[in-house]
Amino acid sequence: MKKQLLGLGTYSLKVVLAIIVLLVIIGVSNLPYFEEMRAFSKIEKTKDSIEKMQLIKDYEEEYPEGRYLDDVLWMKIELSGNDMNHMVYYIEKFPEGEHVEEVNNLIDTRWDNEIKKYSNYDKSKEDPVAVKYMTEMLQYMKQNRINTIKVKVNPTIELKDYTEYDENVRLFIETFSHNDALPVKGNVISIKENFSEGDNNSLMQILIDGVQKSMNRIFSYGFVKVEKDDGIHYIDQPKKNNQPVLRFDYTIKSQEDKVGKYVLPHLWTYVDNNNIPIKHLLGISITFKAHFTLPNSDISFDYTENSAPKDAIKNIDNVSDGYRQMTMVCFGLFSNKMARNMGLAEVYFQGEDSNDK
Fold first, then answer.
1. pLDDT value for 32
2. pLDDT of residue 298
3. Phi and psi at residue 151, in whole multiples of 5°?
């Protein structure tokens, strides 16, 4: 009797179809659409804050224009304790986002609280014009959702050597110092040969750090950021063009004293470890001209200050290092005076505290 194999063939077809369906399901589930969905779902379900923040970072890197980015950035804001940088970024990214009203309310509340700190800070030594500018600047930053201040520096060097001073002035100084342990005549080092213009970026950083530390002592740490103006005009990020600018023009000159109609070079004595004089050298002074502005506004603050080191410059390696330290002291003194005028905290030559990070 002949037997049939129809049942086996039908079974084989079902298996093949099942495998095909399974492969299709696996393939579809691995499409970017579903991968992104799983990444977002994992963020939502994760309870550990550190792990959640890392997953958010991974999502942002993998899906910079992701379908769930609006919600992901909102979770990032909540997780960070309403960090201003995250909130400002959200507004820039989603000006009409799902959470934009909540974020704007949080930003306004945060700014109002921070501005109140400045209003309540002791400004008994302030310059009224500087405080007015500072107050307007904070309101401007709040309204424009900006929390970064730019610093621009323009240096000039104008030095005179001892031999360039009036002959009668030099004769007077040399006569007066004739009986000193180290007479001035023949013992003055050339300032032009020993003063190094140095790294303008390092000097700029002193001003940036000074402003930043002053801000940190009044506002929440890092609430207002201070950074170098890179001079770039941003077409794709116009808000970066609207940040307040603190411009500092400074001129480094030979330090001088005036006696009647005469201008005398201010001399310092370079001594060894035993306090024995080695040479005389001319000091330096710095004239600072500050010009603070707000974009598209006539509100500004201009301030001029002459700064010169008054105390001994200690623990120097050589004459050039001495001039470097003189310069840094001048910048520190100016930074303190500027902060005081604006109703901020002085930060240089006052010791360190927990905010000096």
1. 66
2. 87
3. -120, 130
Reported for 172-178, long-range contacts at CB under 8 A and 24+ positions apart, including other chains, are 172/262, 172/264, 173/264, 173/265, 173/267
Cβ within 8 Å of residue 82, ≥6 positions away:
106, 110
Q: What pLDDT is attached to residue 113?
A: 94
User: What residues in the chain have per-residue pLDDT under 50?
Assistant: 3-8, 28-29, 351-357
Q: Tell me, what's the pLDDT at 16?
A: 55
Global pTM reads 0.77
* Nearest in space to 266 (alpha carbons), one of 119, 154, 160: 160
pLDDT, tens digit, for every residue of 269-298? 999 988 899 999 999 999 999 999 998 888
Candidates 312, 349, 339, 352; CA nearest to 131 is 339
Give the contacts of 339 (CB within 8 A, at least 6 positions apart). Answer: 210, 211, 214, 345, 346, 347
HSE on the CB side for 164, CA within 13 Å?
12
Q: What is the pLDDT of residue 296?
A: 85
Check residue 297 and give its pLDDT.
Answer: 86
Residue with tokens 């520096």: 153
